[in-house]
Design goal:
- The protein is mostly helical.
- The protein folds into two domains: 85 residues; 88 residues, Arc Repressor Mutant, subunit A.
- A two-stranded antiparallel ribbon has the order 1-2.
- A hairpin with a 2-residue loop joins β1 and β2.
- The radius of gyration is 26 Å and the shape is elongated.
């Protein structure tokens, strides 16, 4: 028969071994997580760069050939996304697909709404928790979209799709 102290020592040793195994697994997962974050970062930068290039190409195709010759040559973006404008200013012929995903989602939600929307109404529709931080972050994105001509703020905090002369009225028109 095994004594109580011996049984407790055996259980403690088994628990200690399990803790060490889990710590090793956690360390391995931390390494994998860091690699996945690095991959994600590279993909985000690539997507933003492609969106900018597409926006510039779209704008160049819409401009008359004479204006294209007179226009200054755009500077190449700085390496690693520094200075890259993720949300290009709206121009005739520019489609919503040039926007980063979250901005595109916001514009599409506002476009589908029957009337003006507030940031707190948009946050749950883009899949975020309705916390103050997420609402304020979304409000910043909405303000940026207003500054760049994609949205209008008819009343303080109430956002609608911007109407431009010659618009077809469709967000995804090509």
């Amino acid at each position: 028969m095994v004594s109580l102290p011996e049984e407790l020592q055996a259980r403690e040793a088994a628990a200690r071994q399990r803790v060490e195994e889990l710590q090793a697994e956690a360390a391995e997962l931390a390494v994998r997580l860091e690699k996945a974050r690095a991959d994600l970062s590279r993909l985000e930068i690539t997507r933003e760069t492609v969106a900018q290039v597409l926006a510039e190409l779209s704008a160049a195709q819409a401009a008359p050939e004479a204006e294209a010759r007179e226009a200054p040559v755009p500077k190449a973006p700085a390496p690693h996304g520094i200075g890259v404008m993720a949300v290009p200013p709206w121009r005739e012929g520019l489609v919503v697909q040039v926007l980063p995903d979250v901005y595109r989602d916001i514009v599409e939600i506002v476009a589908d709404a029957p009337g003006p929307l507030q940031a707190k109404q948009i946050v749950p529709r883009i899949g975020l928790a309705a916390t103050t931080a997420k609402i304020e972050g979304t409000r910043g994105k909405l303000k940026r979209l207003v500054e760049r001509g994609w949205l209008d703020e008819d009343a303080p905090g109430r956002f609608t799709l911007a109407r431009h002369d010659g618009d077809t009225g469709r967000v995804n028109s090509r």
